[in-house]
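Z., the sequence and structure:
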Amino acid sequence: QVQMVESGGGLVQAGGSLRLSCVASGRTFSSMGWFRQAPGKERDFVAAINWNGGTTYYADSVKGRFTISRDNAKNTVYLQMNSLKPEDTAVYYCAADLILRRAVPTTTSEYFYWGQGTQVTVSS
């Protein structure tokens, strides 16, 4: 049984930092990703990392501020978020892929499993 449990969300002032964690168990996953969804908006890609951590990809809106990493020994993927802005406010979801692809996946349809989401709120 696959379980994906996110943690680390919360309320932070603009300019602050948060680190999200996602423990994924029950299967062997290839790429892992983070997405976010603000109220009334679609779920958007944030960052992704391939199976061994050697390749990462970021949305332009977070490039240079967010860092994705993974620890396969702990079945955990992280999202370090620095220099947070009010527009980063959203529910953040981790996602897991099962297929070894040429490029890290960046669309929701390419991921097989999802976490329950964790709220990140950035105040101005």
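The two ends are 41 Å apart (CA to CA). Residues 21 and 58 are 17 Å apart (CA to CA).

Let me know what you think.
H.
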